[in-house]
From TrEMBL, chain B:
Catalyzes the condensation of carbamoyl phosphate and aspartate to form carbamoyl aspartate and inorganic phosphate, the committed step in the de novo pyrimidine nucleotide biosynthesis pathway. It comes from Desulfosporosinus meridiei (strain ATCC BAA-275 / DSM 13257 / KCTC 12902 / NCIMB 13706 / S10). Heterododecamer (2C3:3R2) of six catalytic PyrB chains organized as two trimers (C3), and six regulatory PyrI chains organized as three dimers (R2). Signal peptide: none annotated. This is Aspartate carbamoyltransferase.
TrEMBL record, chain C:
GO terms for biological process: DNA-templated transcription termination. It comes from Desulfosporosinus hippei DSM 8344. The gene is pyrR. This is Bifunctional protein PyrR. PANTHER family: BIFUNCTIONAL PROTEIN PYRR. HAMAP family: PyrR. Coiled coil: none annotated.
Amino acid sequence: MWWLKDVMVIDPSQNISAPRDVLIKDKMVLEISASLTEEDVLVKAQGESVETVNGKGKYLFPGLIDVHTHLREPGQEDKEDILSGSRAAVRGGFTTILAMANTQPPIDNRALVEFVRRQGERAGYAHVLPIGTVTKGMQGSELVEMADMKAGGAAAFSDDGKNIQNAEMMRLALEYAKLTGFPIISHCEDKDLAGDGQMRRGVASGRMGLRGIPASAESVIVARDLILAEETGGKLHLAHISTADSVEMIRKAKARGVNVTAEVNPHHLIFTDEEIGITDTVLKVNPPLGSEEDREALIEGLRDGTIDMIATDHAPHTQAEKARPFAEAPFGIASLETALSAVWNYLVLPGRLSLDRVIEAWSWAPAQRFGLTGGTLKPGAIADIVLFDPDFSEVIDSTNLVSKARNTPFLGKNMAGFPVMVWVEGKLVQRDRVVK
Amino acid sequence: MKWQRKDILAIEDMSVEEIRHILHTAKVMKEILMRPIKKLPTLKGKSVVNLFYEASTRTRTSFEMAAKVLGADTTSIAVAQSSVSKGESLYDTAKTIQAMRADVVILRHPSSGSAKFLADILDPAVINAGDGQHAHPTQALLDIFTMQEHLGELEGKNVVIVGDVLHSRVARSNAWCLQKMGVNVTLAGPPTLVPAEMEGLGVNMTHDLDSALPGADIVMALRLQLERQKSGLFPSLREYSHLYGLTTERLKKTGKQSIVLHPGPMNRGVEISDDVANGVDALIERQVTNGVAIRMALIYLLIGGSGNVVA
Amino acid sequence: MEGTIKSKILDPDGIRRAVTRIAHEIVEKNKGTDKLVLVGIRRRGVPLAERIQQYIEEFEGVKVPLGILDITLYRDDLSTIDIHPVVHETDIPVSIEGKAVILIDDVLYTGRTARAALDATMDIGRPERIQLAVLVDRGHRELPIRADFVGKNLPTSRREIVAVRLKEVDGDEDVLLLERDDDINKS
């Protein structure tokens, strides 16, 4: 049994944001109290040994749930695999991760769903839940066996980067997915508008002569999918929202009662296109970094609940792939191990977002939307828990990252504020940033 | 001035003093090119590698000649475009060149930023001979050099650059270079090829060429890539030529004896009428000589002394 | 000047006499002024050449053509010096084909500058002959080169510095012998 004493508990599911004592026993949260005496604890341990942690000055919150990660297995294990990705997850404070379907081959049938799930269980770190594709081979023409894939353990459906361009296919997917109760995750990108763009179309792209992706490449698909979700009554989740227009449209759709949720990536809350230098492939990401106006709108959207959740879009790539001229390097930022610290430093400490809102958007909100266990510290809930030390500092470098990837803009930076203890189902899997 | 730059990658980050120093050095080099014996011992034993991922006989030959006049040895590595994606990466090629102990690498590459990418990896000097749509500094310098020969001091002069500015590294480098020299620059072309994001260059923009011409000392026409029509960027050569083609009649609107420049090769009858093109032809010979002089100056400035020696 | 002055070798009058004599010798040795082209080596060779041109004009009544030679690009020590020398224009306004080119410099020392000037001259054209005139010859040749016209022969040690100052370039007018300061504080 674990006795976490005098720790600042942040649990938006119960509206707790106060110093508490927490007991973990038999893979579950046993109790949260204002304070416990040693006698109380010994009685509750029922003879089990008690490990005590003094949590003064630290935060305790439900393990984070990341609904958007690329674990690259099967097919691209040189970039990442389920073992390295789920180790990176718990190092970063994530106890449940959803694995995107765009592997090679894509996760478009039950056998592959079960493979990913099994690999996650074998790894034994974070809970790994597969997202299935929407269409076979992500070709955008035939739906996958959604009910069967649900039975195999899928958590949602998405064609990810190969956004469904055919509006009728998207409409059918929203209809058919009702059988599963799962949302269709839209990648929100119009292929023609995006073209072979490399970064957000704007003054910075014009100056550097890098081909631009207009903000409309996202917004027109957001508009389309909102209309389709409204018309079908289907369940829609919009991935990595990055433009002010998208935020405004989602706000209005929610007011009309459309069944939609949206996520935002930390890098879109932190960086803008003006920060990209012509060789900074580490900031090459899709959707591309937007303007300062977009960044402000995203923060506001997350504050007011228009944007429901934060997700990393952890996109690991090899160093060789990123060590190319800008146009030839792949899109993506590897972020599982740094995302929480980045949000803490760039958004919470400057007062742009409250820690309560961050934890809600990164645990309770995704748990509810995707019907997942976790995301709460209610007594009886599964003990997926993070102890966060705002003073723990670390230089992000190749020697301490456990992901296979190094494509993070924080490489070489000294940051403070990290998860220092992480439990998955009551088992301690990370302590002092070292994954067990 | 004391020259400290390791590479020539873009005009954007150069100082006016550096640009003037390059132009001064090029003037000396041009005198040498006019001699009966065009061979110097200056860079004896130095090696210059031409690494061209895009075909460009003109630019490559110009660099080769510049290096040879200065007495350096040159090697050309022409990489077929098709092998870029599947073959050796630029990173690997760079490592090979490093091992060959080249002193200067001249890079022409279809990706914006590739020159800086290479310069960051390599110890030898890198000269950008055109990277994607980003920059073509030697072209801009030779254009400025030619303009100065005709007009003297350029400060306060007016230059109109007309055409496919969006996709043009020549336009970008010229816009930076001219601005730094105190020239008023106007970019002209249809909204699809001179879009709002070009504001980042900090120069005037217009979609009405005729309104930009009065007072122009120099008009530079850019080459129109004919495949842009297929991408839907403009409806037809006929309409483009009607709105933006340089004709004798249209050039009268400048109200002066303006100079017309073109980075070549020209699409006669599209961005430039035949008779105007004939006038430009007369300048091309001079441009070629000036191009060699500018490139000699740059190679000399980069490796003429050994800037890396620490006492 | 990075040294201590030991003695003054020539004063303004001394320079004037030496240069005048050189001007006479050039005309005498070349049997007139017909084929002469004076070429000053940058920097101090240039005012010396101008003076010689003026003296010749005074006593022969002929203005001999005058050019300027920059030998930076012909130096053999470019890769051993740690700054990039600024190149200047070479300006020789007449053809030197079949002419008698007189290269003019202030000091002849190792002979490397003269060697570079010979190469540069021959890249410009094919003169009938090339001669070398210097204000001071201080010895210590590293190449088989000698001057045809010398204003002042001055035996020196390698530790010494010969400083020629001309009013057109330096404001002052003299030739000084200096002792190099000890380089204790230099790396």
